[in-house]
Amino acid sequence: MKQKTFRPRDMLNKEVAGICGVARLTDKARVAHAGEIGRYKYGADSKQDMVILSFLGISAEAFQEAAVQIDNDVRLGAWVLDNCGRSDKDISTFNRKLRTWWKNKIPADSFSKRRRELGQQEENRMRYWLYPWFWR
């Protein structure tokens, strides 16, 4: 039986504290503590994590300890909001900037673009195959 590999939540997920990236950070912190993080990086080894942690003003070690001790995302979110000292406006601005950065980093349309290219190639093949028969 093949073992399931770890995959954290999406960077834009706001399930924990209403802040983009905190849910992903939570998953990574819990799995890193268990020693099963695999190819992912946590804390100082991850630029994404450091951006989120510096915004929160919480160290990677303190966050990991809280994530492991508080196994409920709602209560962890409350802990994050109590310890970060950020306003709703700060959080909204951060979410907007992170969303923009993430969408620019990951080209969402690359799959669609390739699919359109392959579709156009197939259409051209059909056109050239039918062309001699169609005009006779």
Low-confidence stretches: none
Helix fraction by DSSP (H/I, runs of at least 4)? 55-70%
Task: Give me the Rg, rounded.
Answer: 22 Å
Number of strands: 0
Query: How many strands, what sense, and barrel or not for the largest sheet?
Result: none
Secondary-structure element string: HHHHHH
Distance between the termini: 59 Å
Total domain count: 2
The DSSP helix count reads 6
Which of globular, elongated, flat, extended, rod-shaped describes the shape? Answer: globular
Q: Which range does the strand content fall in?
A: under 5%
Instruction: Determine the mean pLDDT.
Output: 82
Protein structure class: mainly alpha
Topology of helices and strands:
Blueprint: H1 22-34, H2 47-56, H3 60-69, H4 73-84, H5 88-105, H6 110-134
Structure write-up:
The protein is globular and about 55 Å long. The chain is built from six helices and no strands. Helices cover 65% and strands 0% of the residues. The model has no long low-confidence stretch (mean pLDDT 82). With 136 residues, it is mostly helical. The chain folds into two domains: 1-105, no CATH class; 109-136.
Distinctive features:
single chain, 136 residues, mainly alpha, 2 domains, 6 helices
